[in-house]
Amino acid sequence: MRVEGWGCLMSEQEKTFGGSAPNFLDRALSWVHPAGAVRRLQAREVLRQFGWDGAKRTTERGRARAADNQNPETTRMTRARHELAVEAREMYRNSPLVRGVTDRICNYTLGRLTYKARTGDAEVDKQIETYFHEWCHRCDWTGRFTFRKIVELALRAYIVDGDHLVLPLRDVRTDPKTGVVTGDGEPRLQNVDADRIGDPNKIGCDQGRPHGIFLGERGEIAEFDLYKCDQNNRYTPDKKVKAAQAYFLCDPFRATMYRGVSLLGTAIPRARDLYEAIRLEMAAAKTASAFAGFLQEGSRGTAVDWDDKPGGTAAADDPKSLEMVPGRLQKLTGSGTLTLAEPTARPSGAFLNLMDVLQREVANSIDMPFGFTGRLGDLGGVTQRIEVMQAVRRFDFFRRLLEDAILNKVRDLVLDYGLATGKIPYHKKYKEGHWLYGAHLTADVGHDTNARLAMLQAGLTTKTREAGHLFGDDYSALVDEGRAEVDLQRKVAEESGIPIELLPGGHAQATMLLAGKAEGEEIDAAGGAAASEQEAAAAAAEPPKVAAVRDTKELKGVLDLIRSYNRGEITRDQAVTLLVTQWQMDLAEADQLVV
Hints:
By secondary structure, the chain is mainly alpha-helical. It contains 19 helices and twelve strands.
């Protein structure tokens, strides 16, 4: 058997990538010795079993280009990165899936973003938090956004564009005519989109450096080259900013990368397929639903007479279709027949399965569980909790990235200014604190709460940590709220005469405890007055000589013991015994001291 025409039967992929397809020698050999050519192909196929299969050329798949996977900052890769960001923005504007997933990541990551100071001094913490929270409402350079919104814009831009820049500025303005300087120099923040770092129309004109970035001697980022973009999409030079004066949000996946790639990069093809498939399926469903029935003519030269004209023939200007009116019976004449359209079965089960497959690929591309982008209700039990844990860890990754790149740097900048201007008091730990993001995401509140309560009872966690985990709030704030609630219940009970135990959320034995507290305060006040009178009388007389009491702390202990004796809390013998045993007094001195 002769094997002919192999060159004609080869596909374009086989011609390009080769692999097990016959080459020139194989085709030449097949003309003179077909059996030898077949054995040659078999031998080469055996040799293919050695080595890495992913590094071999085959006829079933293409092969990666080395030029596209070596230096990530080449002109070609930079242009591809910019085009990828444009595609991601397009999908964010038009694809409900991409927009929903992106916004959901931002909402769950940030939640109720707030800062809690941790100096150890409650009063200092309160002053720092008050000043910082007030600054958060005036932090935007343009006066439009709060601090949380600025961080949200940065995170969304990082997901869609690949990177984002936040510039710290000073609220100082100079009148160009008079030269008068206004503003107090308080820090302000400005968002800079990724396409403004370098001119996207001049990719490849960076003289071998990363687009929009100037490097130092060690390869570090030294400066950013920023541009302005007007309403006609014209880019003009804006300014150059030192790297130390900018907060760059970027997460490169290679050490030689300086600019980020859209997090939706690998999801864009499947997101666009999904978007286009839904549009086409919707068009097909509308087309199928647009026809209620079809008219079929009878014998040649006859037709249905919609207007019931004599003779059963239709006029030349008769309509080609009839509008279906609900509840009306239309009388038809002539020899034609009317066939109702088949009910549409769109979308089909196969189409819905395809939608699930595409959504799973989109979820995998951004390292989020399918339930987060698709249907979490389909999962249950342990699987559901594992999926939620994956999402929680992904949110924690975004939070750590934001804290390292933006949040902690902004906190230090603002608190330094507040300390320098005297708006917050100095404390050696004035920068100690942490960020709270709201309630913790969980798939089973009851199961998770019981587990964490067991950990709390075992001493493996603290109330402060659990308050932030479950409610996203500070434990001290919860204690203050509880104190205020108890105080409110006490006032209502005193005014209405209703015991606290009967009020909504009342505490057991609250009335007895409050009565005991009031009685103790009266006893302390009475005992203190008696002790004061005795101390005044003792001061008039010659003070006793206590040889064993040598410092202030010991003297204070002795006085407290005597006050307890004067209030009747201990007997005279007990007081004398304590002075002898604890303060090593002589029995005569102790007996003389306790009168």
